[in-house]
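ARCHIVE CARD
Drawer: 12
Card no.: 0347
Subject: one protein chain, sequence and derived structure
Cross-reference: see card 0346
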Amino acid sequence: MGKVAGIVIAIIIGIVMVSMDFSNMAELSEHTRTNVSDLLRTLPDYEQAGPWYEGLADQHHESVFDTHHKMGSKRTAASFDDMGYIHDLLDKMAADADRQNQKERAGYIRELRESVYIESDGPA
């Protein structure tokens, strides 16, 4: 019974640790998306096209975030490549704008991409 109880406790601890990583990941994802909105508000036509820009960001955020977030393990901390994330997200948004024949807005997004620099704080 003692061995089984030890295994069950180890499994529960593992589940709690994984849940904490996912919780932190969800918080980081939400925080990152909020920061993207703050950044998009700097676009020259955001007042007219804000919902359009936000829709593009929403469309790509999750997949781009997942690409640039690396889960931690016992030996390594989780990490997030914030510069890679924002450049990848803005590239996808600009490509969508081009496909929608929104050439001027695609240009605004590309200009924003070129101006963004994020100083990394270290592991996520």
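Annotation on reverse: The mean pLDDT is 80. Residues 2-40 form the longest helix (39 residues).
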